[in-house]
Design goal:
The complex is a heterodimer of chains A (about 250) and B (about 625). With about 250 residues, chain A is mainly beta. Chain A has 2 helices and 17 strands. The radius of gyration of chain A is 19 Å and the shape is globular. Chain B has a 5-stranded antiparallel sheet. The radius of gyration of chain B is 63 Å and the shape is rod-shaped. Classes of the chains: A mainly beta (about 250), B alpha+beta (about 625).
Chain lengths: ~250, ~625
């Protein structure tokens, strides 16, 4: 029972592919002003979570990004290298956003072996078992959401969001976010949250006009309604824990 | 101490003995009976409880197997969980990761999780039995236990080669484990070509905690024995020490044959059942002893014993009381009988025989009373016969005594028939006849007095000296003929109330007695002294002679009638009459102790104040 519950808690919604287009805005942006285009400006905003079943008030790890509506795919001049550390049987940080084509390092800081893998959309990879102190890199060369697990520690999970835009941000614990260096223009605003259904996220998409002085997108309310945690299979597509359906044994 | 008191004491001692005997025998009987009862109860109770306990444990013994089966199943399930886990397969698929202790530790934690208990053992060996990972969970610590050092496990090799699970008890280091071995095989599509990747061992330590667990299930103490030594037990420390010693002494090994044995541990009795601990091949590596306490039986018996003790005390008290009562009843009557018998022995035929008792004692009392009656009758008959004989004797004596004066009178009368008698001679003859008739009269009146049993006195104030003087004159000629001197020392002034004639007869009788004694002993010289002294209440007259004295054989009965020392020519009543007269005067007469001769003492009051006193006369019965 516990086992099932923990598996469920650390699982993700994998029902449908995420798409960065389509749909109409449900939420109105509370303060929208037309300003002259500057060279680049900061876009601020705040994420609020609704209908959460968790007691935590942590609003971090919500990803917000802007894509020019003209369909161009801007590239940043220098690619960032991100790190997801494995320590105490946890991936840290839990959610990482990179521009597609960036590399992420997976150092093993635990005194035992880990096996980092991802079998879902985004980047499919399997780093195999590697010992304490070793580091293995992964190039997320395609945009998409990569769910990262350890094949021998089912409780571990991380998410790498690879985007084909450099204009993105991730919310802090209070939900606040800032996207820097956004040139003025019209953008498609997208939001991704681990515990929101894809329909909810699709509905949050909208077009925003960014002035040269930047913009304050105000509060973006993300509903967690309908979110059901599900267990994830291991890299072989099997359940991690085959004992829960073993007959003949009861916990003493 | 009087005879009566003595007899009472003797009776007491005897009855005490009887009482003691009664008490001791009844107390012994009660003790013996209660002892037998106690023994029977003890053997019954102990036997019953032992059987009960044995039956209980025998019904519990399958539970013991169930306990091990449960443990074995848990360990097998743990092993199965391990080998079925993709995580485990993933790790054991990597030579590097599978030999990393920390990785395996985390693997066990992740896969077995909450099912791990303190004391659980996990090990991993390759197909050749080389152990490359071993870890025992000890409470909160997940650090490896340094005591567990094992490089090779034959059973693991066997499990690896056969690719079958196995189960058994084994020693690892100095610890005993119940261990399940589960081979982890690669699936190659055909069972024949499966490779053994590893053998996973899941075990549980057999220790005090496990003994405690089994104890809780079976309500019995558990002792694990490995290599002939106590390995672990659920016993308290002191009992465990006793068990250790009992094992050393071989007390436990007797139970191996399947039958329970009794073992005493620190004063407590246990029924011990033995079970085996077997290794992977079914070989015995140790034993488990199930100890069921018989203390309950002991407690039960002690409770019964206490009650028996109370019962015993009560029985003893009852025996004491009963024997006291019975013996008291019997011996009290006997005691009274003894007293009565003593009285009877002393001549009291009128003694009252107690008849209050029942049963045999009453019969005895009644028989005793009958005996007393017949004794009294016999005595009366004897007395009568004796009296008749006495009367006969007396009659002849009287006839003989009367014949002399009669002869005198008759002779005098013959002489007086002759005419030629002078006047003086005739006168003499008449006087002789008168004296003889007076003497006869005196003799007859004496006889009459005695036969009446009372003396009619004619008391008057008289001078003792005159009475004595007359008696001396009367008898002085006879004494002087014999050569015996009569002396008298009597104060002239002693006056008393007495019958003159009778008092004179007392003195004369005594003097005649004395004279006859001299005469019979043919003693031709001697002295008879009469001394009179005045005492505060009366007169004392001592009459002493230096004659032959009175034989000892008749001294005691001297004053009874017809007692004499064989003298000739007397009624045999002299002293009896003397006593009768003295006592009629209210005085006393007795024979005083003397070395030579006889010494009579007469005591008379000055004043006569009594009626005639009856004494042992002929008509007093």
């Amino acid at each position: 029972m516990m086992r099932l519950l923990t598996a469920v808690l650390f699982s993700l919604m994998l029902v449908s592919d995420w798409r960065g287009s389509g749909g109409n805005p449900i939420l109105s942006i509370k303060s929208t002003r037309s300003l002259p285009y500057p060279a680049a400006a900061a876009v601020k905003g705040r994420i609020e979570l609704a209908n959460s079943k968790l007691k935590s008030r942590d609003v971090s790890s919500v990803v917000i990004w802007l894509k020019p509506v003209d369909g161009s795919t801007p590239r940043s001049s220098s690619k960032q290298r991100k790190v997801i550390t494995q320590r105490d049987k946890r991936f840290s940080p839990h959610v990482v956003v990179v521009e597609a084509g960036s590399e992420v390092d997976f150092p093993n800081d635990d005194p035992f072996f880990h096996n980092v893998f991802s079998i879902f959309n985004g980047r499919r990879f399997d780093l195999g078992l590697y010992a304490s102190g070793e580091t293995r890199p992964v190039n997320f060369n395609r945009p998409g959401i990569s769910y990262i697990f350890c094949n021998i520690h089912p409780k571990m999970s991380a998410i790498v969001v690879a985007l084909d835009t450099p204009y993105f941000a991730i919310s802090d614990k209070t939900g606040a976010f800032v996207i820097n260096n956004v040139p003025a223009g019209d953008y498609r605003l997208s939001v991704w949250h681990e515990r929101a259904k894809s329909e909810t996220l699709a509905a949050l998409e909208r077009t925003v006009q960014i002035a040269a002085t930047g913009a304050d997108l105000g509060a973006i309310v993300v509903s967690e309604e309908g979110y059901v945690p599900r267990p994830h299979p291991n890299k072989h597509g099997q359940e991690y824990d085959s004992q829960s359906n073993k007959p003949g044994y009861r916990k003493p | 101490m009087t005879a009566k008191a003595t007899s009472r004491v003797i009776a007491n001692r005897d009855t005490g003995k009887l009482r003691n005997q009664l008490f001791i025998s009844s107390a012994l009987l009660a003790s013996a009976l209660l002892g037998i009862v106690a023994w029977v109860i003890n053997s019954q109770v102990i036997g019953q409880v032992r059987q009960q306990v044995q039956a209980e444990v025998e019904t519990l013994l399958p539970l013991y197997d169930v306990v091990w089966e449960e443990h074995a199943r848990r360990l097998a399930t743990l092993g199965a969980t391990m080998i079925d886990s993709p995580i485990v397969k993933e790790i054991f698929g990597s030579p590097a990761a599978s030999h990393d202790r920390r990785t395996l530790h985390e693997m066990v934690v992740d896969v077995s999780g909450d099912n791990i208990k303190s004391g659980d053992l996990f090990l991993a060996a390759d197909g050749a039995g080389q152990v490359f990972y071993i870890e025992q969970w000890g409470g909160v610590s997940t650090e490896p236990d340094q005591l567990l050092e094992i490089r090779h496990l034959d059973a693991a090799r066997a499990a690896g080669e056969s690719q079958r699970r196995s189960h058994g008890f084994t020693m690892i280091g100095n610890r005993l484990f119940q261990l399940a071995l589960t081979p982890l095989t690669t699936h190659s599509g055909s069972a024949e070509f499966n490779n053994t990747m590893a053998v996973i061992g899941t075990g549980e330590e057999v220790n005090r905690a496990m003994a405690g667990e089994i104890k809780l299930r079976m309500h019995s103490e558990i002792v694990f024995l490995v290599a002939g030594k106590l390995h672990a037990s659920s016993l308290a420390t002191d009992k465990e020490q006793a068990a250790f010693q009992a094992i050393q002494a071989g007390d436990f090994s007797r139970s191996s044959s399947g039958r329970p044995v009794e073992v005493n541990l620190g004063g407590e009795l246990y029924l011990v059942f033995a079970k085996q601990l077997t290794d992977f091949d079914g070989k015995q590596i140790g034993q488990v002893f199930v100890l069921r306490s018989l203390a309950e039986a002991g407690r039960l018996f002690r409770a019964i014993s206490n009650r028996l003790l109370v019962l015993w005390t009560l029985a003893i008290l009852a025996a004491l009381g009963l024997s006291y009562l019975i013996a008291g009843r019997i011996t009290h009557s006997l005691e009274k009988l003894v007293v009565s018998a003593k009285e009877l022995g002393q001549g009291n035929y009128d003694v009252v025989v107690p008849s209050g008792a029942h049963g045999e004692v009453a019969q005895l009392a009644s028989a005793f009373d009958q005996m007393r009656h017949s004794l009294r009758q016999t005595q009366a008959a004897l007395l009568k016969n004796e009296r008749l004989a006495t009367i006969g004797q007396m009659a002849s004596s009287i006839i003989h005594d009367l014949r002399n004066p009669l002869a005198t009178i008759s002779t005098a009368a013959e002489v007086m028939k002759n005419d030629g008698l002078s006047t003086v001679r005739r006168q003499t003859m008449i006087e002789t006849q008168l004296r003889a008739s007076t003497r006869m009269n005196s003799m007859l009146s004496e006889l009459l007095d005695f036969s009446r049993g009372s003396y009619r006195l004619n008391p008057q104030r008289l001078s003792l000296a005159a009475v004595i003087q007359r008696s001396l004159q009367e008898l002085g000629a006879q004494f002087s003929q014999l050569g015996v001197e009569l002396q008298a020392d009597v104060p002239e002034d002693i006056m008393l109330d007495a019958d003159d004639e009778k008092l004179g007869r007392v003195l004369e009788n005594l003097l005649i007695n004395s004279f006859q004694a001299f005469q019979q002993a043919e003693q031709r010289s001697g002295t008879v002294q009469i001394l009179a002294t005045s005492e505060p209440t009366g007169v004392r007259i001592d009459l002493k002679d230096d004659g032959p004295g009175i034989p000892y054989s008749i001294r005691e009965r001297l004053f009874e009638p017809f007692i004499s020392s064989g003298k000739i020519g007397g009624t045999g009543l002299g002293l009896a009459i003397a006593r009768g007269i003295v006592e009629a005067h209210g005085g006393k007469i007795r024979l005083a102790d003397s070395e030579i001769g006889a010494h009579f003492v007469i005591q008379l009051p000055f004043e006569f104040s009594q009626e005639g006193v009856p004494n042992g006369g002929l008509n007093d019965t």
